């Protein structure tokens, strides 16, 4: 027969298991925004009742203010979502089991059908401030690429460089002569986008392959990096990110 102590212990265990998935709704928008800011800033002392134990942290930015507003509209009926919004970007916190963050972000992105960039990280509640910083840096790299959902593993080399300003500055100096010449910049971007496939890059640019080869040789002469080498092409790609990665339009968390 189950003792009173056993019943209490079982109740505690079940409450911990079900807590992320049985949350009371936070209806007031201002309250949800305030909770998101507190959690993302690292000021949470664990005193908020009814919040999840872990979240998918999504940093997002949109190409227009209207698109950013539609992100919020898509989350309006999700009482579990905590959102800290800005003009063209913001943060979304969604209760999430480990390894479920990518599916949640992709589902949201697919429902939007917009030019929106998302950086997504999973974290337990006590680690949300660090996850926010990572998601923001992932988003900063991703904003130089096609709209979509990105995790750290998708942008690892660029992320590592952006976290080391002295390295980023050196790479910026390497790539500046290429950035200053639009035909060379276009050629390099197309070559990177086509994963080093010269024929595909030439088609993308609508130029002859020999013209592309000439521009790639000029890039090598200016940078010391041969674009046809996979390692050198990665270096050039990261250098471009270091040069052009913008400050994403995210709201302050402090």
TrEMBL record:
Xref: PANTHER family: CARBOHYDRATE DIACID REGULATOR, PUCR FAMILY TRANSCRIPTIONAL REGULATOR
Lineage, opening ranks: Bacteria, Bacillati, Actinomycetota, Actinomycetes, Pseudonocardiales
Query: Which protein is depicted?
Result: PucR C-terminal helix-turn-helix domain-containing protein
Record the organism: Lentzea waywayandensis
The domain of life for this entry's organism is Bacteria
Every copy of the PucR C-terminal helix-turn-helix domain together lies at: 184-242
Q: Which Gene3D superfamilies match?
A: PucR C-terminal helix-turn-helix domain
